[in-house]
Amino acid sequence: MINRSVVPDIVSYNSLIYGLCNMGLWKRALALFEIMNEKGIIPDVVTFTSLTPAACKSGKWEEAVRLFRNLIDCGTLPNIVIFNSALDALCKDGKTAEALNLVEEMLLRGVKPDLVTYNSLIN
């Protein structure tokens, strides 16, 4: 794309990040996320819906929580997938109080906990 003077947009980056995450190439997806930010392209809920669960699957709990905080800082409203990924990361890291605070934040934002939410808390 770049060689043909086609400038990637948020959709292009999201597609590539999604594909890299699905292939288990977490580090490459995160590097692309950083490039996207450097280019001034603001990530959206789709970006974070790919990255946050991939961070958790890779055992990068702190990174998942950092991504979640980044999402909030960007003014993007998290969806249930993002909330559950961050919640799971907190629970696996033994941060029960923070996880329960996150559930309260979910409720305040009108996001109803689901089976995945409760499974993370129970585990």
TrEMBL record:
Transmembrane segments: none annotated. InterPro entries: PPR_rpt (IPR002885), TPR-like_helical_dom_sf (IPR011990). Keywords: Repeat. It comes from the Eukaryota. PPR repeats lie at residues 9-43, 44-78, 79-113. GO terms for molecular function: mRNA binding. PROSITE patterns: PPR (PS51375). Belongs to the PPR family. P subfamily. This is Pentatricopeptide repeat-containing protein. It comes from Prunus dulcis (Almond).
